[in-house]
Structure formats: structure tokens, C-alpha cells
Amino acid sequence: VNRQDRLCEARQQAEEDELQKQQGCKDEEEAAQLEERKKNKNKPKAGDYCELHYFTNKGLDNARVSMSITEPDVLVILPAADGIHSWVPAAAVKDLKAAPVVKDENLIWEDFNEAAPLSCYLMSYIECIYSDNTTVQG
Questions:
Q1: pTM for this one?
Q2: Which residues pair with residue 88 across a beta bridge?
Q3: Which of the four, 41, 55, 119, 129, has the lowest number of CB atoms within 10 Å?
């Protein structure tokens, strides 16, 4: 094998290494984007609708209670009418004190006055985050 053949082989090897490196970078970037999408899949997006009830004091309290159940497989013990206790998924247990979601058209003025400023703040906050990656101080 002469010198020219070795140079040609070395050049081909270098090109293959570069292609593998580029493919590795591309794979890492795709994995990072997929992970980011998984983390952000529940974030509100432009055009998403949310009932104003969730911005009232009652709605915020209900959300705080529901957020306390972080694991989907968490079990709680409940007594039955016959006195026997049983384990049930925490997600299936409904808080009887929790207020039901009220449709926007059925909100009383006091609830609307609580919800409107909070919903406006959230919309501006989300717009700031998505427009230039800065956060609103407040």
C-alpha cells in the first residue's frame, strides 16, 4: 500500500468519524428536545382555554389540594359503612368540601373580580416567558 492510498484511507476515516460525531450531536439534540417537550406538555399554550373558576380563591384552593397528590399510585385508607377499611387510589377519592368547577357564565361578580386580574397576570406572564425567556417579577 502506497502513501497516497494511506492518505485516502485516513481522509475517508476522518470523514466517517465526523459524520458519526454529527449524528451523535443530532441524536443528543433530538433527545433533549423530546425531554423538553415531555416536561412542558402541560404548560398552557396560546389559544388554550381555562375556566375563570380556576383563578378564584375557591378554584386556587381546590388546585392546591389536588396538587398535594403527586404520585398516581398513592393509596389512602378509607373506612366502609360496615367498618372494614380498604385501600383506594388517592386520585379516586374526591374531596367532598371541594367546590365544583363553575362555568364562566355562572360566576358571581365577586368571583369574577377575583379571577379577572389573576387570569390577566397569568396571560402576560406566559407571554413574557414564551417571547423572550424572561419572567415577570411580582
A1: 0.38
A2: 76
A3: 41
